[in-house]
Amino acid sequence: xxxxxxxxxxxxxxxxxxxxxxxxxxxxxxxxxxxxxxxxxxxxxxxxxxxxxxxxxxxxxxxxxxxxxxxxxxxxxxxxxxxxxxxxxxxxxxxxxxxxxxxxxxxxxxxxxxxxxxxxxxxxxxxxxxxxxxxxxxxxxxxxxxxxx
Length: 149
Hints:
Blueprint (H helix, E strand, L loop, with lengths): L12 E2 H6 L7 E4 L9 E5 L2 E4 L10 H5 L1 E4 L3 E4 L1 H9 L4 E5 L2 E5 L12 H10 L10 H6 L1 E5 L1
Antiparallel strand pairs: 1-5, 2-3, 2-5, 3-4, 6-9, 7-8, 7-9
């Protein structure tokens, strides 16, 4: 018996949608339309997009306007200490256990008031405070930690 993998559908954006949308600085997108731009990676810098390889602004052509792009999600697996430092710096982070995951980003409203019990011991080991309202014990002990870019 053979099994075939089906490709997961992706959200395709036109170049105009990328320009007008809420795309964060440094976000990369890859051209998915089969034309001369296929496979080209672009990156948002300021109010424009640059070719990621050449670092030059894209020329506005009809081909570019008809090209569909897929956003590139970057995530880097890191240690618990690096994860906590990124969270405390306000970066978007993800904790994963098996097939479940949770994405978090610190806001001014959830600044931890205190760290208690076992979390104090772990905080000393990793060198960063772990708020008790932030992670479950299961996430802390069995999770894989990522910084999303």
